[in-house]
Amino acid sequence: MTSLSTRLRKEPAHASLSPLLRLLILTQLAFNLGFFAVLPFLSEHLGQAMGMAGWLVGLVLGLRTFSQQGLFLVGGALADRYGIRPVVLAGCVLRIAGFAWLGYAEATWAVIGAVLLIGFAAALFSPAVESEVARQAVAWESAGGGSRTRVLALFTVAGQAGAFVGPLLGALLLSVDFRTVCLAGAGIFVLVLAGHAWLLPQHIPGRERVQVRGGLGALLRNRRFLALCCAYGAYLLAYNQLYLALPDEVQRAAGSQAPLAWLFALSSLLVVTAQLPVTRWVGDRLDLRRSMVSGLLLIAAGFAVVAVARPAGWTGTPGLLPAAGFVVLLTLGQMLVAPVARAWVPDLAEEGRLGLYTGALSSVSGLIVLVGSAATGTLLDSGLPAVVPWLVLAAVPACAIGLLPRR
């Protein structure tokens, strides 16, 4: 795999990226490395080792996503008020505590407490980092460096590079036990905390701090922004099925979840190698709305592939092919949707409130995932024909197209 630093050197358009942008992009890589060493194996741990019912597993995963995505609003507002450094450092401390707690949690309440802490940690550091990357990308675009979408695509590549290595590391450590995986994830965030305490600036030029109060009312009246949030939430609910519906399908086809790490690796490798060329190609041909429409249609097609193949009941290697097709199409859709949604936010945000709006994008989607994950877990355990849940999931991103702002 081409390293991120090599990719930065080979990409002339990004030669003028500031040291701060480079640090923030590498931050995303480190965050995801620690996070994805643990998360892909949480569903199996809850269902198999702890014996939780499908609806409860879905609810726990949804609570994790909601405590992260749903509380981005809080983290973004705090970043606007206090700057990104204290918020990022506090989030790292909470993530370390959450992973350590999860490793030793044996009761349902303890698991829920740990995943809520893990999620809230990201609700602090992620909107701070993402909003500053978006702000720096707009400044870079204004200075003639190129499209802001390309910077945000590079940010996505860095995250997926971490998501590529993370599950492989987690799968290796899982041969010991799940606790070891959690403690390794905590250890990675200890290193992240130390590095950012040293490198992250106390004050970033051009970023003015604002009061927490006063921005939410204008946000709630911004219909175009809220429409974008809902469409993005539908995408995130679909993406969350990598951790809920996909493990069930892999277990059915292969008799174990061993191939799951390789499917996650496939997704991450696609983003790392193809995100920048895809962003460049699409940026020359499609506007923001058409790019998101194309991405949502690809995601819907991924669910449809599994739905069409499911009645055949294939197992073994043939049985894994629809799952692989789902992962590929979902990932291609993600390449179109995720950077474009982030690139759209600065045009819709109130002056000085980019952290709040970046957080709100994830908060609305987190609420959708909370409700949708519990419903999906129930649907998967309902005893309905196997094709039904996948067709329902295919309809979610397809219907979300109608929510996108027209202008």
TrEMBL record:
Protein's membrane topology: Multi-pass membrane protein
Record keywords: Cell membrane, Membrane, Transmembrane, Transmembrane helix, Transport
Q: What is its main location?
A: membrane
GO cellular component terms attached to this protein's record: plasma membrane
Transmembrane regions: 20-42, 48-66, 87-104, 110-130, 151-172, 178-200, 225-246, 258-279, 291-309, 321-342, 354-375, 387-404
**GO terms for MF:** transmembrane transporter activity
Q: Which InterPro entries match?
A: MFS, MFS_dom, MFS_trans_sf, MFS_Transporters
Q: Where on the tree of life does the source sit, at the highest rank?
A: Bacteria
Which segments of the protein form a coiled coil according to its record?
Answer: none
Which residue numbers delimit the Major facilitator superfamily (MFS) profile domain? 20-407
PROSITE patterns attached to this UniProt entry: MFS
Where does this one sit in the cell? Cell membrane
- Name by which UniProt lists this protein: Membrane protein
Origin organism of this chain?
Streptomyces resistomycificus
